[in-house]
Amino acid sequence: MTDGLPAPTSLILVALVTQPRDLEIARLLGWYRIPLRSAPKVIAVDFLAFYQTSMFADEKWRINLVAPVRGHELTTRAELLQDEPDHPHASQEYYKIQVGPLVRLPKPIVANKWRRITFFYTTGEYLFQARTIEDLIVASEDRPILWQALRERANQDELYGGETLPSDDIDEDLLASLLGLIERPGKG
Question: Which residues contact 161 (CB under 8 A, 6 or more apart)?
Answer without folding.
Answer: 154
